[in-house]
Amino acid sequence: LDHNNIEIVEENAFERLRRVKELDLSTNRIENLPNGTFRPLPNLRILDLSYNRLQSLEPDLFHGLRKLTNLHLRYNALKFIPVRIFQDCRSMQFLDLGYNQLQSLARNSFAGLFKLTELITLGLLCASPDIAQGEDILDAVYAFQLCEDNVEATTQTFTATRNRARGFIYDGSTRNPYDLQDVEGGEVVTSSLTVTASADDLESTM
User: Fold this and answer.
1) If DSSP states are collapsed to H, E and C, what string results for the chain?
2) Distance between CA atoms of residues 175 and 161, nearest Å
3) Residue 103 lies in a domain
4) Could you tell me if 167 and 187 are in contact, meaning their C-beta atoms sit under 8 angstroms apart?
5) Which of 70, 128, 179, 198 has a beta carbon 3.0–4.6 Å from 94's, enabling a disulfide?
6) Is residue 95 part of a domain?
7) Which pLDDT score, from 0 to 100, does residue 155 have?
8) Can you give the pLDDT at residue 109?
9) Beta strands 118-120 and 94-96: pairing type?
């Protein structure tokens, strides 16, 4: 089904297809997927939704996909990841979120991904505030780990970059704050990016 002009996928589109293990819907014009779209596909291993126009994901979109190992979401227009959207995807090993417009990361967005070995966030851009538009944002895994360490509302300061070369240096020796630096013309160019981690969500503010 890839490389078509599909715009709408009805909730019952995949009824009676329990044996399907791979579904490729990439390179279409899909803007929205109903909650129960993939519920009839309990044996699904690989799902490719990349190169579409998805702006949001329904909270139970991946419910019941316990055998899913690979999920491709790159090149959409996603602005946030719902809380615990992957909680049933306990077999997932590969997740590609590259080239989206994530504005915030919910506190438990990645809950349940115990077997995840590869997370691609290449090209994640900050969509707000205006001053930070086009900048790469904090790696989702670091954000998730930070939130897990904070029960009460806390504010952490990160050092972000105006990245034309996109040559990041991650200083693993400092956990609070994380340091993300970029080299531009031989100089390290930084700007302050404040991320507020509360019991409900993690919002990027400048």
Assistant:
1) CCCCCCCCCCCCCCCCCCCCCEEECCCCCCCCCCCCCCCCCCCCCEEECCCCCCCCCCCCCCCCCCCCCEEECCCCCCCEECCCCCCCCCCCCEEECCCCCCCEEECCCCCCCCCCCEEECCCCECCCCHHHCCCECCCHHHHHHHHHCCCCCEEEEEEECCCCCCCEEECCCCCCCCEEEEEECCEECCEEEEEEECCCEEEEEC
2) 18
3) yes
4) no
5) 70
6) yes
7) 28
8) 76
9) parallel
Q: What is the pLDDT of residues 135-146, one digit of tens each?
A: 544 444 444 444
The yes-or-no verdict on residue 113 having pLDDT over 50 is yes
Q: For the domain that residue 30 is a member of, what is the CATH number?
A: 3.80.10.10
22 pLDDT above the threshold of 90: yes
pLDDT of residue 5: 86
Residue 64 structural domain:
1-124
With tokens 């959409």, the residue in question is 76
Cα 160 to Cα 117, 125, 168: the distances in Å are: 25, 12, 10
> 104 lies in a domain?
yes
Looking at the 3D structure of the chain, how many domains does it have?
Answer: 1
Tell me whether residue 37 is in a domain: yes
Residue 25 contacts residue 4 (beta carbons within 8 Å): no
